[in-house]
Design the sequence.
């Protein structure tokens, strides 16, 4: 049993109301509110799974919980607005909780996000230190919505930032969610975008599957985070970068107008009509089978 | 350290955007959407804390997770619409997950709620079997919003249903959230309502505190669930009933028009201008100090 095969069984059973334009399976759900879409997503951050319980400052864990979710809003071209937070913890020290919420609130204020609800509970000792979750709500203009399913053959694959070695470099804690970049790109330069949190290869494969296209990935063009190998860049996870599909017509304007000198924007492949759901290199080797395996929080 | 004192420190630090009409601390947050309010709340259900991991059917746990949250929407006089669900579990059997989501989805379809997002993660073995959370989104007409803070001196205290012995009777799993009752009451008969999940006494005390009034509780009028003592009715928790404040002018109409023959509606006290934040009996004994202690998930 793994997360992906389980979700393949569960998700089709969930009935969606008519006003739900995008249901489970993308970075956020999108709910038609008339003038715009309400975006909603939830993510977990678990001690011992997503950070090292003993050594990670509580404030860094709190900030990371929010930033993971902001990355999902960024991928939909949205603006974050509200958050609801749960903490189930076996810790007894008030300092940890105060630190966690301080880090969370500081990050929330940076992005003008209001933490408007939550729940606290104890956990029996002996297992994980805590399970925390955050539900993010945001909005996006109807013509800004960026889905995983919007890539078309002939479109170019772009990415922001660098990949790999997120854990050792500290990137998994100190990254900046690509909200500004996502808002700049959405609607104007792309309508197909997602955030990369489970490794470039697995997430690219998800985009290829959702769009029913193949991806030729130019592995030599993938920007490596300091100290990362290509394999790490493909599979480490926790990059929190964006990948997007850009029509060839938009490529010159996008390169000329990119207004974020501190955020690399790289062309790393293109979408094909052949081999739908597959990611392969220039030599035609299928990358998402065999050698490389994507990151999965929910392992066998 | 306990949940209440911790929240007293954390909640005032959380900055709220202007459109948030009700922030953390009530049953739901209420966000001004122009024509109506968007309601949002989150709650957790933890194996070994809120149900017995070994013996509770997975479907019953899934249904309970949703129903706890529906009870919060009921307390605001709202209609539930969407849910986002997380599961962090150390279990390996696919059957448990399928059963959990089946129970959840079956309950969701009863109320026309769409599970539009979620996240699954593993947990290290040795602690709790799982931590599950659900964020509920709903809506309510602006004149239907029912807050804890709306009780006034001279108003009568009413409750739905019975109290106590929820665990042994199975009520904590098989209860029906009071959505129909809440919608009937909201705006017309009351503007001050809350759900009772942590014990009648603690939750009545919360309402008294939020409204800056006292409550004279007629303990002999409290309907006892089969097998419950008064003390259990006051402190057991997990009743998922509504308490509400009703103006004396509305009492005759409310009693005459109550359309739910299967749901007891009882008059169990009244609100006073003296002793704000206190709950006391007919003899003036303060109930929320000393003998009786409310239920708390997050103990010292």
Sequence:
């Amino acid at each position: 049993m793994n997360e992906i095969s389980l979700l393949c069984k569960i998700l089709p059973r969930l009935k969606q109301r008519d006003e739900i334009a995008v249901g489970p399976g993308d970075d956020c759900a999108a709910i038609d509110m008339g003038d715009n879409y309400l975006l909603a997503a939830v993510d977990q951050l678990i001690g011992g799974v997503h950070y090292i319980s003993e050594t990670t400052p509580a404030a860094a864990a709190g900030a990371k919980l929010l930033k993971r979710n902001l990355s999902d809003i960024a991928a939909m071209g949205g603006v974050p607005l509200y958050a609801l937070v749960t903490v189930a913890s076996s810790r007894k020290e008030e300092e940890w909780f105060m630190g966690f919420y301080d880090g969370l609130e500081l990050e929330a204020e940076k992005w003008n996000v209001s933490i408007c609800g939550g729940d606290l509970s104890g956990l029996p000792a002996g297992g994980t230190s805590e399970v925390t979750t955050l539900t993010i709500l945001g909005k996006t203009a109807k013509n800004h919505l960026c889905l995983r399913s919007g890539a078309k053959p002939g479109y170019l694959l772009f990415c922001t930032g660098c990949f790999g070695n997120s854990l050792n470099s500290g990137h998994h804690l100190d990254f900046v969610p690509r909200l500004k970049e996502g808002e700049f790109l959405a609607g104007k330069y792309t309508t197909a975008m997602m955030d990369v949190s489970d490794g470039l290869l697995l997430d690219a494969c998800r985009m290829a599957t959702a769009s029913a296209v193949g991806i030729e990935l130019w592995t030599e063009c993938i920007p490596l985070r300091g100290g990362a190998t290509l394999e790490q860049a493909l599979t480490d996870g926790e990059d929190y970068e964006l990948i997007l599909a850009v029509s060839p017509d938009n490529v010159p304007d996008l390169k000329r107008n990119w207004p974020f000198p501190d955020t690399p924007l790289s062309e790393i492949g293109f979408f094909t009509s052949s081999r739908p759901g597959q990611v392969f290199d220039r030599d035609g080797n299928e990358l998402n089978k065999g050698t490389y395996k994507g990151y999965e929080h929910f392992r066998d």
